[in-house]
Amino acid sequence: MKLSKTIFIYSKTTPHMKLRSILLVTILAISGLVFTIYAGFLVFPYLNIDNEGPNINYIAPYINKTHSCSKHSLSCTAELPSQIINYTVWSTDGNINITSNAITGDNGFFKLDLEIDKSYMILMQTIINNTLYEGTANFSTAFGSANCITTGQLKP
Fold first, then answer.
1. What is the mean pLDDT of the chain?
2. Helices (H), 12-76
3. Do 76 and 67 touch, CB atoms closer than 8 A?
4. Considering Cα of 126, then 108, then 53, then 39, what sign does the dihedral take?
5. Number of H helices, E strands in the chain
6. d(CA 122, CA 57)
7. What tens digit of pLDDT does each residue of 32-43 get?
8. Please, are residues 121 and 110 in contact by the beta-carbon 8 Å criterion?
């Protein structure tokens, strides 16, 4: 029969070591929280719709009816849901910024991400029942300007 030896290591914990451990854990926790908040502001600055920057604009082309709006919200609805819109965006200095197309969402809006602190004009076109409709709207991405653009009436 073999006997095994068990070795116990006795360590005496001093109050200074406990205090040091508590301080270390506290500092690590605060550092982690600060880093998380800092990274969140840098990586996800406009995560929800209410905090989007002035460069995000929601465009709602319409034919017959629209609504006045300055700040887009999830309750905004427009006249042309699921409609293909061809568009060209010019800045006021005459440069063409975008020529593309979009399909309006279920709420009738499409989203544009443009440079901040500029004024723009958008030309929009769509075909409904073999009739070409087109119209323009002017808007700005200056701080405090409307991000819900509902002034682009399309006419045959």
1. 82
2. 15-43
3. yes
4. negative
5. 1, 7
6. 12
7. 777 766 655 555
8. no
127-155 tens-digit pLDDT = 999 999 999 999 998 888 888 999 999 99
Digit-coded pLDDT (tens) for 12-56: 666 666 777 787 778 877 877 777 666 555 555 444 444 455 578
CB 102 within 8 A of CB 85: yes
DSSP assignment, residue 81?
T
**96 contacts 88 by C-beta, under 8 angstroms:** yes
Token duo for residue 62 = 């319409």
Q: Are 62 and 152 in contact (CB under 8 A)?
A: yes
Q: Which two tokens stand for residue 9?
A: 């290591």
Residue with tokens 């709602």: 60
CA 103 to chain CA centroid, Å, is 18
Domain 49-149 belongs in CATH node 2.60.40.3700: yes
**Amino acid, single-letter form, for residue 12:** K
Cβ-based neighbours of 97, under 8 Å, separated by 6 or more? 89, 90, 91, 114, 115, 120
pTM of the predicted model over 0.70: no
**Rounded to whole angstroms, how far apart are CA atoms 18 and 14?**
7
State both tokens at 73.
């919200």
